[in-house]
Specification:
mainly alpha
Length: about 80
């Protein structure tokens, strides 16, 4: 599944400026299995750390922070 997720992440070269490669995760989020797997893996990793706060930084972060927080029982 990790390979499947990695294969879905698209790189837009030279965006937003030359030399920068923007990683487009839209295809990962569109694939329900991949998205669920990614959330589950992040939550499993976070649970061991016993976080006090889950923050979704920038426009892509909120796509993972809320479901991870819910998975950790913060609903």
């Amino acid at each position: 599944m990790i390979k499947r997720i990695k294969s879905k992440i698209l790189e837009v070269k030279d965006f937003p400026k030359p030399g920068v490669g923007f990683k487009d995760i839209t295809p990962v989020v569109r694939d329900a299995e991949c998205y669920k797997y990614a959330v589950d893996r992040i939550a499993a990793w976070a649970k061991k750390k016993r976080p006090q706060v889950i923050a979704g930084i920038e426009s892509r972060g909120f796509l993972f922070a809320a479901p991870v927080a819910r998975k950790l029982g913060w609903d």
